[in-house]
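Hey, quick one: can you model this chain's 3D structure?
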Amino acid sequence: MAADFHRPDHSPFAGFGVGLAFGLRPDGSIVTIGEVASGKACDCVCPACGEDLVAKKGERITDHFAHKASGAGGCGLGIETNAHLWAKAVLGELKQIHLPSIEGKIGDRKHQTHKGRSYVFADAVLEKRLGEIVPDVVLVAADGRRLIVEVLVTHACDAEKIAKIRAGAVSAIEVDLSAYRTQGTEAAVRNALLRTAPRTWLFNPAVDEAETSLKATIAAERKAAAEARQRAARRAALALRAAEPRLTPALQAERQSVLALGLQDLVGAPPASDDGFVVPSNLWRAVLINRLVLRRAPTRHGMLWPIEPDEALSALKDCLAPGVLGGVNRPTPAAMKAALPGFVPPQDSLDTFLETLKAYGLLLETKHGLLVNDRAREVLLAREAALKAADQRWRQTETLLDGLFETTGAPMETPAFSLTAWRASVPGFNRSLTAIVEEGGPEWSGLVRSLDAVQSMISGGAPCDSLMGLPFEPSLQEAIRQADLIAAQEVLASEAAERAAADQRVSRLRSRAEAVPGLEVEAWLNRQGKGTPLTPLDAARQGEAMLGVAFRSLDRIAEEFADAARRDALAAECLAVLETAAEKCFDEDRRRLFLRGHRPELGMKSPQEFCRDHASLKVLLSLLPSKRGAR
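Sure thing. Here's the predicted structure for all 631 residues.
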């Protein structure tokens, strides 16, 4: 009896639940729970394990088979058994299924030979065993070809089963119904099984052929790509080898500065190759030493960072051909070496030279990486500083010598003088110029001072103390003549200045004297002082010090004149008082007689002569009578 898959309770489908929905009768037929009597009368065994079943039916439970001996737990294969038997029933009824596309897959590459399509079969078989496997369902085509259909509910086919399927050489697909394990209507699951659920080929010779074809395509593509890369690598290597030289003055100066440190053997060894460089090896090696060792900037703590792997190559960017330091899709050094036998990438040449620097002691391999040897670096820097100082001394010395001969126009080589001989033994030093300049120190400083003095003399300065054997005697004689002339002019100028200063001092003294009231200026200026034959004019002409003496003498005279004026004023004041008092005591004649008459008590002086101050006034007032006409 065919299963009724359209009943409302869809008991045969059973949602892939744990309860077993199918039983196996003694005649080998599969029946659903709805086709049998209840209890032991169902006369069925478990299709999965062969144990006797009982049919469980009722109003409050979902109809299902139970294992007679194991109880509700059963053999644990209920879900898979339900799915497989249900799928066989569906496929047996419809005899068609949607097949996946035939395509080979390798990584993210695909090669499809046939699109997915629905295929109608002649029969559906629930096999107990097919070779070494027990398939879920086997569909048989009209021509006898078989297709294994595996239904995935809880467990996908493992590698072992797939290997056995492949060994049996029967095509197989796996339909993934795990999403419908606990939910979904029978119609939805049926549609998923037949059409929409994910499905893959577990085995199909056509898939293997597609994969084989894809592998061949990929291999051909890889081979073509490898050949293209090899051609590109060869072109790149040839381009690096043929790069146009770029020897700049700045790079040459760097090389010269390093060679001057005595490193010729280190930088001048024959190179294995100059491939990829646009300068000779002895130049880029010198530049590398200069930039990587000598000019490497320390940290703020005075330490030098380890040298990074690409740092040395980057330091030589102006010594390298274009493209060495990278670019879009540039071939690797290894690819260029393989493509062009004998080609040596710049990095290889550089690595070899770095090993040489380590052997030389300029670089050290430590646990922190490749470091610059600080001690060796300091030695080189000190040597460089000494060379720079010597070079500066040479430039200064040569500039002085060239300037002397250029200014005077004197020839450097004559029968009487040879600059070459002079350089071999400098007069006054008894050493060669080279020895003096290279050694530096006080002796070189003395030489420079002497040359500066000669240069100053030639430029119009004072005669130098020594020409040091240089042929500038005419310049020396001219300098002496000019110095004598200047000295004479300076004497005349000094005398004129002294006369002007003397006249100015006399003028100042005269002005001060004229400001003293009552002083006979000319008489005083020309009168000899006490104990000295000098007049005030003579003193002023002798200098500021003697002018000061004259000023002080004049100040004393002025003070004396001022005192006399004050006394005369007081005497006049007192005399006026006396005259007023006399008018009160005498008539005019007797008053004049009193004032002008000489009196013994006054030392034979008249009252007019005697009246000088208040004291003398008091005495004179006492001589007046108390009443007018008393005498």
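One thing worth noting: The first strand starts at residue 22 and ends at 24.
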